[in-house]
Structure of tRNA methyltransferase 10 homolog A:
Amino acid sequence: MADVSGEAAASAGQSGTGDSASGNQTLSKRQMKKLLKQQKWEEERELRKQKRKERKQQRKQQRQNTQQENRGDGQSARKRPRREVAPSALRLVVDCSFDDLMLIKDVRKLHKQIQRCYAENRRALHPVQLYLTSLGGQLKQSMDEKDKGWVNWKDITIKEEHYSKVVAKDELVYLTSDSPNVLGELDQKKAYVIGGLVDHNHHKGITYERAKELGIEHAQLPLSSFVKMNSRKVLAVNHVFEIILAYLEKGSWQEAFFTVLPQRKGAVAVSQDQTNPQENDDNEEEESSSDSDLDAAEQTEIRD
Ligand SMILES: C[S@@+](CC[C@H](N)C(=O)[O-])C[C@H]1O[C@@H](n2cnc3c(N)ncnc32)[C@H](O)[C@@H]1O
């Protein structure tokens, strides 16, 4: 302390705080104390700066941790850690060749269903090889207008060509509710085609006819074997897609159907069904294309 006082006194003399006439007037005790305090304050400036910096960094780190935790909570059900993901070799093709059969409002619904397929596949445990074929016309226009980010979609094959030009014929299986064949196991070597169509049953049987014309395999989902529903067995594109994803994850059609089918389909397990509800052919086609089907987070993710 003695040294410091000496320095302080000297510096006080230099800085002119002493008597200007004599230049060496001794400082009062109070002045000396004040000076020492000031000097200490100056000396510790760097230290304080350093501590402020550290506190700021700590707060930043804390904020980041909280954000990460929140994101983790919010997404845990939707997004899995990447390490669990095991992509499937199975190909799922959305056949968009029915564009000119749809009114623009139905094209918009189909667009949302396709967005949903893409988003679900991105977060699936066993994502499939997703294809969009015959993309053009009103659907492409809707995508360009409403969701420009589609050009950056990952892990998807998008073609203007018909699916029969993209996949070998003997590998194709058209999924259609009108087929007399019922799907059993999924064959990883096959490409399963879903009709990209929202038609309110105006074009009943069209995909079945197309598959027969082309001479490719076809099959319906084994809905009747596992669930009884109080509406028709014609499902929306994204529901068929999600059922396949759920089947790949759970290995059970029944679980897959119950995970995906909306409540309003009134699905009950076949074994539990006592009432045997009638299938009602007048029921509206399952569209699943209301805005609520794509929440904000999904839409953001799609645009990413
Ligand atoms: C809304 S439906 C289109 C219905 C259309 N009238 C047709 O003939 O396929 C959309 C697509 O989902 C698939 N799909 C719907 N329900 C199905 C089921 N029960 N089994 C297999 N595929 C189904 C078909 O590929 C169908 O083309």
Residues 45-75 form the longest helix (31 residues). Residues 1-23, 272-304 have pLDDT under 50 and may be disordered. The radius of gyration is 35 Å. Residues 85-285 form a domain with the Alpha/beta knot fold (CATH 3.40.1280.30).
